[in-house]
Each structure stands twice: as structure tokens, then as C-alpha cells.
Fold each of these.
Amino acid sequence: MGGREQLAAIDPATGVIHPLSHHLGLVGYRISEATDGSLWLLGQRDYPAHGYVVNVSHDRGMTWSAFEPKSPPPNTNGLNVSSFDGRTGYLLSTAAGPNKSTLGYLYTTHDGGKSWSAARQVPLSAAGGVEALPDGGMLVVNLLSPDTGGPVMTSKDGGQTFQTVPGLTYTTAISRLLGGGWQANAAHFQSTWMASADGIHYTPLLLP
């Protein structure tokens, strides 16, 4: 969990909160865990400093490596970070473009967050969140509208080219499930959400 003052972990068996000794000085934490147990944290510097920072820990929060993207321009309106295996990771930065479009810029790491590539513009009109896949590929929602969502796209070449994932036309978000697999959230007018074991092939998710 995250907060303005200090990171903390919750013991799932007892519910006891254990504050971590390392203070990152960030707010608005979002944390995901890769399959190797590494922690991938995205946060924002507190006032008066601004900007997003990615922190990665391979020892359960004892030490962290930090990366602060310096580009694209300061009209950034959101970032997402994801790693499946703890080695290959993707940081997707979105920024306002011309004619109300959204531009996506992708950073890549292949060494567990120690170093990151320079930003590459993603060839999508409205790139949303990113999710890493087991084979090193990625999923990106092409969020054409916050109300109607958009198609989910997949890339196997580091974000140079994308193909449409079948059956996911009106998707607002996609996420990796704690128990394995992926979930695609449907737009509000769609009654069916979708689930996948491999991130590419989806079946309807039965809701209570």
C-alpha cells in the first residue's frame, strides 16, 4: 500500500500493517508485483517537486532502483508500468496531442529496472494502460473514449507495431489477475467482461 509518508505491507494472514523502513518521498503510489516477486512502483514527487518516478525492488522493498522519465514534454497526463517476469518491463506515458488526441510514449527495460530505453512514440491514437506478457510482449488499450473504451492491441516487437486482440472492441482497462491471467474491463454499456489465461485469447467472465 502507499501513502504520503511511508510505504507499508499488509500481512494477508493477520491483516497487520508493517511499515517499511525505506521512504521514497512519493505520493499516489501504484504497486504491482511481477512473477519473480519483484515490486514495481509508480509514484509522483510531492509538492513543490513534480514528475513521475518508477521504483523497482528485487528484495521485497529493502532497496529500490529509481527511474524518472525526462521526456516527453510536460503535458504528461498519466503513466503505467508493468513487468511480468521481473526482467522485461514497460513504462507507458500518455500526453495530450493535437486535435484532442492522446500520444503514447514507451520506455523499456530488460534488466529489471536498472536501465531504461529512451522514449519511443507508440503508433496508437489513444494509448491507455500497458500490461506485460509472459513472452516479452505487451497489451495496450487504445482508449478512443473514456465512455466507450476502445480495442486492446498487442505488440511482440517492443511497441513498434501493434495488432488487434480479437473480441475486445469496447475495453476501458486491462489488468493482470493475482491468481493468474488477465481481465478486460468492458465499457459501461457492455454487460460482459472478459478473462484470458494468456492475455491474447479471451472468454466471457461470468459475473454474479
Amino acid sequence: MTRDFWGGEVLEELVSRTKHGDPYVRQIARALLGNVEKGSNGWVRRVMSLPEMNTYNSPFEKALVLEKIMLHYILYEFWESVIHLGKVQRGELAKVKSRINELDQPEWDKVAEQITDDIYLRVAGRPIQTHRLKRYESLIEKIVVPLLGKNGSEIVVADAGSSSGAGSQVARMQGLPLKKWVAVDMCDPKENLSWVLTCSIRLGEILDGRFRKIIKNMFNWPVEFQFVKGDIENLPRKLLTGFADVYLAVFSYYQLKNPKRAFGQALKVVKTGGIILLTDYFLPGKLTPESVITPGRGGLLTTGVWRSNGAGRAELITSYLWADTDLSKFI
């Protein structure tokens, strides 16, 4: 294996993903590594030379976008049909399920050979936008409701680094008295919805039908939901007014160049007594915005909870260690 591949860091991420718990992730990673071995004849090296790939701040993100390019090729037509019709057609679903079931390792290797320049140019540089309902369900049920949901007052939530309305619907289902859910991100999900679906939905969820819940959520945002286009390191002034009871950032800070600055912005978003929840991988023994690290680099998947004291200050009041990336249970 070539060790000088982007300093070896992206290569190491791909090798790490060959040991992933999801068999499809493992097979895609092996197919990508096989394409790397083709040298200049492989598309993986060509896409990595694009200036658009500098959008991603870490080797993990670059390895992940290579995987999503493969998935986008497989699923693009299916997602476009869902978006166009506003529903899932039984025949189209049967076809895509059949295709997924055919995808053993040799088939993934063939898929890698079929990726052309026009395919990866469609998505290179786009943020990896994931709308995982389970994460919101766990955060709201296990943390937000116990902290704020018992007093009967309606709550305003700021969701930083997400363009999804997923959390607002989950909040209602969990019984959170929600007044408004404001999602802030650089990308409007409606602009690139097929890409968002590719990033959000796993192949196994298409096969077992769980993807329908995500589709329903994304196509039917509640009236309490508001999307604001903005950079969470430099938020629009209208958000810096201490309007929110809760500030959430779920797998957002590891992508930032200046997480400390983003946290300073969060302090201006929440009201005095409001809480800030950061869910990300943190260096062991440290729980500050600056100690957030790239997933897979040895950190601990943690939700830190801070309470605003006003005047731009907050104190860490508790933290939670998670056993998996869907935040399904505590350690």
C-alpha cells in the first residue's frame, strides 16, 4: 500500500473503516483502497486533488466523503424519484433493495471502477449533512427533558451546525413543550436533498424500512421549525440576543476551525440560566470546546452540559459518555 497518500492520514482513515461495525462501510472502504492502488488511473486520487476537497478540515471527513460519493452513485436515482414524487414508490424501492442485496465485495469493487469525473464533481466540497433521528431522541429524552422539560414553560432550542427539522419533530414526540426550534447551518437541506438523504440514511435502513421515518420527518417540518443560514463561528446578529433556552451542537464542533469562537457565540445565543450541550469526541480527561477532536482519533464520545451564568460565562454542570454514534445508550 502506498504510504505517501495525502500524508498517509486519509489512507489510515480508510484502513480504519475496513474494521467498521457496518458491513457496507467495510466493503466500501476496501473498494476505495483498491482504487487507490490504481494510482493516477484511479478516481480517488483525482478527486482528492480538487481544491473543493479543502472544504473538509480532517482526514476523517475526507474519507467519509469518498464513501458518500460511492453511495450517491448507487442511490441518486432512487432519492431523486422520492423527492420528485414526495413519496416512496414500491417498484423503485424493490429495485434499489435488489441492488443493495447484490453488493458483495466484488460488486463494490466494480462500483468503484464506474465512478467518473462528472459523478464526484457533483458532490465534492459539499458538507456532509446527517439527520440522525435517534441522536435527537436520546439527547432530548435523556438530557434536555430532565433538565428543562418539567417546569411546563415552552422552550426555544438553537440547533447549531444542522439544517434539519428532525429535532423539532422528535421534541414534540418526546413531550418537550417546544415554542421554537431554530436550526443554523451554512447549507439549506432543500438545495441538495438527494445528497442529504445519501449522507443521512444507511443502506441497512433502506432494507429494513427504517428510512421511511426519516423521509417523513424531512418532508414534513413542523410549524415550530425555523432554518437560518449562517456560520456557527460567526452567527447572524439576530441570533446573538440570548433568545434560546437550549443550544445544541451534535457532531458539529470537530468540523470547525475555531471551536472556542463558536462556543463564545453560543454564550450569546442562550439566555442566562440556559444550557449548552456539545456532543462530540473529546480528548480524555478534558471537556472544553478546544478539546474536541476528529472521530476515530481516540477521543471519548461525550455530551458536555454547560449552564449560562450570563455576561458571557458558563459553568460545566455535568457530562455523559455514549456507547455508540447514534447515542442510544450511556456507558
Amino acid sequence: MLRAFNIIIIIIAAVTLLACGSMGKQAGSDSNSEPILIKKLSDITQAEYNAYKKYVKNSEAYVIVHPYYTLFSKPSKKLRRKLRKQPEVREFVDRQVKIENEFIESSVKEGSLVILVLPGDRYSNRYKAHLNNITQGARSVIYMHTKRKESGNIDDDQLDTLGKFMDAIGVRSVIVGGGYIGRCQEMAYKDLSTIFGDENIAISPEISSFSPSDITAATVKMFMQPDNQMNFKVISSYIKTMDNVSADKPANIRNLNLRNN
């Protein structure tokens, strides 16, 4: 059973809308023309599971929730005003996206298993084209989706399929990363903990994203070191103090010791 394992999947949530980030509406809704080149989890038969074992490195896998969605959503007027007045926040958000891009691209090159948890089941062609560009249709990358684009919750059927898949291919450890911290990331974290157990899931600050609505120029200054590198020790402490991160039980934190630019 998965609960007996020390599970760590990495879940990155770079999400936006409503509960996930108050960014506004997705730009464009031409959701049917552009195909998604990577395979959907529910389309993989149990007979095919063994073929994915070779992508599991050190009994770990990466699950990325709502990747890049912030790039293709229009900020609300209130948020646009804030970003104009506090450009440090915009720069910090851009840096988070850059780190996410580099992390996924590196995982693809290394042939590490990556599961993208997309926002709902309808996406613009621009969004799908970006996913295809980053993943290059790699066999080591597969996708599933949340119930709605504004939510990080995953339905029970997909959670059950994910659990069986991870169990079959030998995944032993899971890290929840990405964004938005305290928003959709929290929803996904709680849903996954029902499958894997609270003790087997952790948030990685390096691959987690804050909503631009939740931070200020002063927060960004606190997060940065004198050499302009992110201070993940400070960010980790900040995550632990956020009121809306797993309020009934503090989230576990795990650092990956990644370089940041």
C-alpha cells in the first residue's frame, strides 16, 4: 500500500484564477484545435505501467499542478495597479516562472517522470502550445487535471488512478511544489495527503510559487539575499507561518537545494 511508502512526488502549482490567484480570465478560449502531445494518465493502461519505471529516479517523481497558467491569464485591474506600483513583485513572479520552466525542462532532459496536473479540462491553444514547447511530447511526461481551472482539487477517480500508477512503478517519495502557496497548492496538497498520508508529502519552497496578490515589495525584499539569490530558508519559514497553509496541520517542508537565478 502507498501509505506504507515514504512518498515524494513534486507538485508544482503555478496557478491563477479566483481561489488560485485572482489574476483574472484566461486569454483566449480556443481550446479544441491544438492537440496536447503528451499522454493523459487515464489513457495509460495498467499493462503499460511497467514502461514508466525507467523514468523514476531515486524512487521519486514530479507532479506539477497548473503549470505556466499565470502566463496566459489577464491580471485584474487591481492587480495591474499593484504591479505597476511594485515592480519588484512582478520581477519576483517572473523569476518563479523562470525557475519552474527550467525545472521542468531539466527533468525532461534527464528523463525523469513528470506528471502535469492541468487546470480543468479546457485550455487555450496558446497554453497548449507552450506546454508542448516545454515538454516536446516527451514520453516521460504525462498529464491529468483538476476539477476546475480555478481549483486545485483533484477528483477521486483521478486520485485513485494516480495512486495505483505510482504504486505500480515504484514511486516512494512526494514533494508538493509550486503555487499558489496557500491557494491551489494547499487544495492539491490536502487531496494528495488522503492518498499518500500526511507524513509522506512535503512542500518544496524552491519550486513553489506565491500569488502576486499575496506578496508585496517588502515581502520580496525579505525573500532575497544580498547577492540577489532567493533565500529559501526565509521562504520556508514564511510558508510555515502563513495562516492558510494546511491550517489544521502544518505542511511539511523539504528543500531540494536547487540553484536559482
